[in-house]
């Protein structure tokens, strides 16, 4: 058996080298701590920023508008209304927020009780939420289709059958 190879002895660091390394550590330590804090405090709703703005689906007899504020404070606020024949037919207050540590879509349709839907997917192209105990819908999803359109889908399983509806929306200029 041969003795292990020996590496040449490295001379000790000079006092100037030690001071330079210490100064570099002092400068970089806060950057690393800040980066860790930023990632730990990252807004879990932020990936849904693509939903912010005004959206519309229009037919000859009906217009549905939906508007979302940009993410802030781990939340997004939204609203929706449907007008048909010149009359308000449906309206809804919407909110995406962190509830008990989980991103949640909270809908309050036409003055009814609010209903929470827990997130199953939150990304820069898809937001999907579900509440299997709700009658209809049990699932709500928004899928990004480019920068100017999305498809909202509401669905539920009833009597063992999937029932749902796709709502294609176009981005429109927000009025005021």
Word description of this protein:
The chain is built from one helix and ten strands; from the N terminus they run H-E-E-E-E-E-E-E-E-E-E. The N and C termini lie far apart (about 85 Å). Strand 8 and strand 9 form a beta hairpin. The model is unreliable at about 1-10 and about 20-40 (pLDDT under 50). It has about 180 residues and is mainly beta. Helix content is about 15%, strand content about 50%. The chain has a ten-stranded antiparallel barrel. The chain is globular, with a radius of gyration of 26 Å. It folds into two domains: about 15-40, no CATH class; about 45-170, Calycin beta-barrel core domain (Lipocalin).
Provide tags for this entry.
mainly beta; 2 domains; ten-stranded antiparallel beta barrel; 15% helix; globular
User: How would you write the strand order of the largest sheet?
Assistant: 1-2-3-4-5-6-7-8-9-10
What's the end-to-end separation, in Å? 85 Å
Largest sheet: 10 strands, antiparallel, barrel
- CA-based shape: globular
**Domains counted in the coordinates: how many?**
2
Q: In CATH terms, what is the architecture of the largest domain? A: Beta Barrel
The whole-angstrom Rg is 26 Å
Report helical residue fraction.
Answer: 10-25%
What integer is the average pLDDT? 85
| DSSP, total strands | 10
Structural class: mainly beta
Task: Give the topology.
Blueprint: H1 15-40, E1 53-58, E2 62-68, E3 75-84, E4 87-99, E5 102-109, E6 115-122, E7 126-130, E8 139-145, E9 149-158, E10 161-172
Antiparallel strand pairs: 1-2, 1-10, 2-3, 3-4, 4-5, 5-6, 6-7, 7-8, 8-9, 9-10
């Amino acid at each position: 058996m041969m003795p292990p190879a020996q590496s040449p002895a490295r001379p000790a660091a000079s006092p100037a080298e030690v001071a330079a390394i210490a100064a570099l550590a002092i400068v970089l330590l806060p950057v690393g701590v800040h980066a860790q804090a930023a990632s730990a405090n990252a807004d879990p709703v932020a990936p849904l920023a693509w939903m912010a703005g005004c959206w519309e689906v229009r037919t000859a007899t009906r217009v549905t508008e939906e508007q979302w504020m940009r993410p802030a404070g781990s939340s997004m606020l939204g609203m929706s209304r449907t007008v048909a024949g010149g009359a308000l037919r449906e309206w809804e207050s919407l909110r995406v927020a962190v509830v008990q540590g989980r991103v949640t879509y909270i809908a309050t349709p036409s003055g009814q009780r609010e209903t929470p839907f827990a997130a199953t997917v939150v990304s820069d192209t898809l937001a999907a939420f579900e509440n299997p105990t709700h009658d209809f819908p049990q699932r709500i999803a928004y899928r990004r289709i480019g920068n100017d359109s999305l498809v909202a889908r509401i669905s539920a399983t009833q009597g063992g059958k999937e029932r749902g509806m796709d709502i294609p929306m176009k981005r429109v200029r927000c009025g005021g």
